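The aim of this short unit is practical: by the end, you should be able to scan a pair of folded records and say something sensible about each. We start with the first protein, listed as its amino acid sequence and then its structure tokens.
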Amino acid sequence: MRNVSFQRFERKYGYLLPWEEAEKKVGRKLDWNNNFDCCLYHDLLIQTANKKLFDKRNE
């Protein structure tokens, strides 16, 4: 993937990992207003996107 901003990436690939699913993976409620939680969500989203996009390329 090329270099894109957090917001652009989340708008484009956010459907791959809903916020609620990220909370389940982390095991706690995430706060939209907490910078750490937003970065944590973004990292999980990147992992999910890489996995799903990589899996599609190998089909």
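Turning to the second protein, read its sequence before its tokens, just as you did above.
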Amino acid sequence: MPSSFFVSCPDTVQAPADGEQVREDFRLAMRRMAAAVAIVTCRKGDEWLGITATSMTSLSMDPPSLLICVNRSASIRAALEPDAAFTANLLERRHKPVSDAFGGRAMGKERFSFGHWGTCERGVPMLRDAIAAIQCKVDREVEYGTHTIVIGRVLNTCLSDEMNPLVYVNGNYQ
């Protein structure tokens, strides 16, 4: 096989790279991992909050639970307190403008002018035409590095017939 099919790693064990090099190499490695794109939403009082998230996965089927990682500096972080309700809205390919808006191209409530939004029974914003809208309550939180790992207990799931998820890999949507 051509050598381009192999991972570029030395054959012998070397001393660990410095911290900055490890971070950069790890960042480049994570760009190679495709991730589904979701908008995580919640509310604090009358204010709707939301962020684009790619660091999300199912955690357990019993009890049904979801794990999301939220940067501590994100505006939504303070609202994701124990027992708070949130929704993980899984995006379809046509939702790229929604993802961009929640990823920083729009701020505050202006983000919700992108997409067709309603609310679920707990008053949390829900993207009406999402592939799936997974409604949760915060069960646990773990602080780690720059992020908070939020474990959500699934309360309800709304599904559409769409099956063309928006995926993010190497800095681009697929």
